[in-house]
Amino acid sequence: NLASVPGAIVPDVVIETLSQLLAMDGAGARVGMVCEALLNLSILTCSRANIVDAGAMEVVRQLLSLSDSTETLACVANVLCNLSSMRVNQVDMVREGMVNFIVKIVRAAPPVVVLQFCAMAMAYLACNARFHPDILSAGGLKTLV
Predict the structure, then answer these.
(1) CA–CA separation, 75 and 26 (whole Å)
(2) What is the pLDDT of residues 79-123, one digit of tens each?
(3) Residue 109, phi-psi category: left (phi > 0), alpha (psi -120 to 50), beta (remainder)
(4) What is the DSSP annotation of 67-103?
(5) At CA 24, angle to CA 19 and CA 26, rounded to 5?
(6) CA dist list (Å): 83 to 12, 26, 64, 95, 109
(7) Is the dihedral of CA 60, 101, 125, 129 positive or negative?
(8) pLDDT tens for residues 119-143?
(9) How many Cβ atoms are within 10 Å of 88's Cβ, its own excluded?
């Protein structure tokens, strides 16, 4: 388990690899694997603060464009919730479309557990007044309510 070795996980290399896997022909078959890998990276505290800078939001964008299955939406919502819990990630996440991703997920009418992840991610952002205009302009609050 590389997570137990400090510095063993190089987020930019892993994120680039995940992005390339999704860009290849037949990427639909790899969506689940890439989702799980991204979720694992978002859970690990050693990588959570770095994967947004490494391009995680592009991988999220790719995942949402390839699949709207309940499993993919749940995984992506969980990733967004985990990553947005760290203040260091929030500015980049908002700049790269996080609120729009959440709105897209919620509009797909997923199960309640997915909505809970979306609400939590939005709540993390709402704690910072700086993001209130972004949340309101994207329709995030209206969509969640």
Answers:
(1) 20
(2) 999 999 998 888 899 889 888 888 889 888 778 999 999 999 988
(3) left
(4) ---HHHHHHHHHHHHHHHTSHHHHHHHHHTTHHHHHH
(5) 120
(6) 15, 28, 17, 14, 22
(7) positive
(8) 999 888 888 888 777 777 766 556 6
(9) 12
Domains recognised in the chain with CATH numbers: 2-144 (1.25.10.10)
Q: How many residues does the chain have?
A: 145
Amino acid, single-letter form, for residue 127: C
**Residue in this structure with the two tokens 């994120």, named with its chain if needed:** 15
C-alpha distance from residue 43 to each of 28, 99, 141 (Å): 24, 20, 26
Residue 45 is encoded by which pair of tokens?
């505290």
